Amino acid sequence: MQCAAPTKCQPGGTACKRRAASDENGHPWFPAGSSNKKMGSVQSESMSDWVFFRRVLVVLATMAVVYLVWRIAALFFLFFAAVLIAVLLAGLAGLVAKFTAMSRGYALAASSVTVAAVVMAILGLFGTQLASQISDVFARLPEAIEAGGEQLGIHNAFEQIKQAISAEGGGQLLSRVASLGYTAIGVATDLVLIIVVAVYLAADPRLYRAGMIKLFPPEQHERVGDALNVTASALRLWFLGQLVSMVLVGVRSGVAFWAIGLTSPLGLALVAAATNFVPMIGPLIGAIPALLFAVTQDLATAFWTMVAVLAVQQFEGNLITPMVQRRAVDIPPALMLLGIAAFGLLGGIDGIIFAVPLTVVIMVLVLKLWIRETLGEKTTIPGEA
């Protein structure tokens, strides 16, 4: 039996096309570059899957951090308060070391002692005076309530208030007083803890900064370090602006209270300035002592005190704060309100107290790490040199 002669490949023939699609061993082959295209497509798909997976991990990690912060909100806000004071002390120590021949350690010690001495002097100067005035206010409060009630057509107003309080029962009143005492002890303990942690953080900030950077992959160390530096600078700017605002509120309040004729106008002005640190509810809390002092004098004084408080707060909210924020850290009002609401829900009164500086931190990190470095958009970042 004879074998068939090999078929010649005719140009354009089926055999030629079939042979062209395989090599000499019968294995299929592809035109040059087609395999590279397919491999590139596979790699592109795998890269896109990896990017999506990383984003999912980032979202899950963020949710986990938020949940953890919510569970230990009190500890988180205590630590943030210590960080805030440490940033202030470190910046002050840097200025002292820059303009003197002191080392950083001595400059930090001098700064800490100076700040503590100023605070203690203010409390000693005005605290004793306020305490004596408050005792006088409570001594004259029944008479003032009775007089105010008579002018409003209410007879025996103070007796009615006493009966309403006694109707709750003495046991409940004692339990509330005890609860208030425990709260005061807890606040004092927290303050001591915050100050101690802040001094340790300010003493060697590079150590804790390096420890935080090591939590991230090595290729991200420089990026994270730059973000921490910019955030610290933004916090210092915000704190300086807030301090200027508090001082201006205190000065205007003191002048207004002195002109009205309130007792201890400087002490009341100090309370108004200190409580102005807390957004939204701080000015309301700061107005309570002044109004109590005014009520014990007469209703006309109380009226003009209320007018003065409202005028100072309008001046602060519409002129001082916008002017200072433009030069320090300009936070959009809607973002600030959202931050206050969010952190208030997260941590209650502690969250409200530290809502604005925490919002500053989040805003700076989003502007730098996401908008500028991820999206490539040009933007101005507070605290950046």
Describe this structure in words.
The protein has helices at residues 14-20, 34-71, 73-99, 104-151, 157-166, 170-203, 205-213, 221-260, 265-275, 282-295, 299-327, 333-347, 349-353, 355-372. The protein has 385 residues and is an all-alpha fold. The chain has one domain (68-372). Residues 1-8 and 17-23 have low confidence and may be disordered.
**Structural class of the helices, strands and pairings?**
mainly alpha
- How many runs of DSSP E, i.e. beta strands? 0
Query: What shape does the CA trace take?
Result: elongated
Mean pLDDT: 77
**Total domain units:** 1
Number of helices: 14
Helical content, roughly?
Answer: over 70%
C-alpha-based Rg, rounded: 34 Å
Write the layout of secondary structure elements.
Elements lengths: L13 H7 L13 H38 L1 H27 L4 H48 L5 H10 L3 H34 L1 H9 L7 H40 L4 H11 L6 H14 L3 H29 L5 H15 L1 H5 L1 H18 L13
Helix pairs in contact: 2-3, 3-4, 3-6, 3-8, 4-9, 4-10, 8-9, 8-11, 8-14, 9-10, 10-11, 12-14
In a few lines, what is going on in this structure?
By secondary structure, the chain is mainly alpha-helical.
Key attributes of the depicted protein:
single chain, 385 residues, mainly alpha, elongated
